[in-house]
Amino acid sequence: MCLAxxxxxxxxxxxxxxxxxxxxxxxxxxxxxxxxxxxxxxGEYAIVHVGFALQRLDEESARQTLALFEGLGLxxxxxxxxxxxxxREHEGEAQA
Amino acid sequence: MRYVEEFxxxxxxxxxxxxxxxxxxxxxxxxxxxxxxxHSIIRHGIDQLLPEEVELIHGPGxxxxxxxxxxxxxxxxxxxxxxxxxxxxxxxxxxxxxxxxLFRVRGEGGDVRVVYSPLDxxxxxxxNPDREVVFFGxxxxxxxxxxxxxxxxxxxxxxxxxxxxxxxxxxxPAIEAVMRSPSCRVQAFLAAGHVCSVMGVAEYPPLxxxxxxxxxVTGFEPLDILEGVRRAVRQLERGxxxxxxxxARAVRPEGNPxxxxxxxxxxxxxxxxxxxxxxxxxxxxxxxxRYRAYDAEARFAVEGIxxxxxxxxxSGEVLQGLIKPHECEAFGTAxxxxxxLGATMVSSEGACAAYHLYRRLGxxxxxxxxxxxxxxxxxxxxxxxxxxxxxxxxxxxxV
Lengths: 96, 399
Ligand code: SF4
Description:
heterodimer; A: alpha+beta; 5-stranded antiparallel β-sheet; globular; B: alpha/beta; Rossmann fold; 3 domains; 6-stranded mixed β-sheet; 5-stranded parallel β-sheet; 17 helices; 38% helix; 18% strand; disordered C terminus; binds iron/sulfur cluster
């Protein structure tokens, strides 16, 4: 729930008066709100939590973290289908 | 047993462990506050790699776990109403309320939707003006600014069919509650890194001073946690108690000022009940007067909720670090991720779920729990029976 995943800004646009970006998380691209880091630029990295960039991150540590999360299946947990995950738990497969 | 070779950078992990081993001369009990850290510690077996003397006590920092049962039941009730789209983060789907969960409510016909971001819920509200769209706003200081922005944005755009069921919690009052508990054994804290990315570190020096306890701001990755432990142990061995930032790459001393400004506008501090623990003064946020119109509790007037918590569930003690999950009778028998009795058996951050997932069923793996009872750190009162954090007498005005 408190997982924050590093991502790279691909594109920035204004939407309904809010600064939004497409952010790439090792292949998964999501809409991210930049209101809390308004000076973040295209190409830069930030840690993102529930669709909000919260703090800038340098490229090297961002890449390392992403690689680690990917290896641990955390990206799937964060961006995957929560209903499927819940159903799996409900069926008891998550214990395997 | 885990091996250092499984780490991404085994050489660095080995160096940190050697440093810790060289520094330690007596037993120490450290609490990691955040459930994300607990999960990482159990997943990587960090508690088993550390020297005997260093015990990691798991803290109350899983927002899914501490959301009061009454609020969960209110969520289930609102989600069951016709005409309501109930939006939530995916972690909440299987949190047990009294007799059911959101997953079940959807099975019974409730319109429950999982969103990645609170702004997604707002978008759903704008696309469906004839529906009431309710967002379940829970979480610590990391999640509160995004949720606050959704309310602010609803207000700016005049979205009237959007509201939020707010049950936010704050870390520093929880640390204070842990330290004030008569059965407290914690001698140092690993503070939650991403909470500090938002809030900065200014709230911690008074706590470190008052309770003479080191506070080390710590990240979530295995090496981050080892570094946090290393710095905490170094302070303990030297008899120091300062606030140290071991996660500087993501935490600036001032945090995120823009986020803090919106938090101060949209929310106000209240006493908040923590599931299994009790009410902790000033430990939560609710919508401020200015945004009260977006309060789902007022809008849906959910009253007369009778909550019932399974008697055998000891999640309150787990959340306060008084017992380890496998010391609960129901662990792995009556209570599994499939049939969770308590919220700590759900969610990737609940300590019971982490122990179950990584097969910490007791035995040699439980040495830290066992040894901690045999040899409490010097100067720490060893309680005969764990007693919960003293709950404050006033009821929370919100829940
Ligand atoms: S194992 Fe289940 S019943 Fe026991 S404390 Fe954890 S959640 Fe509660």
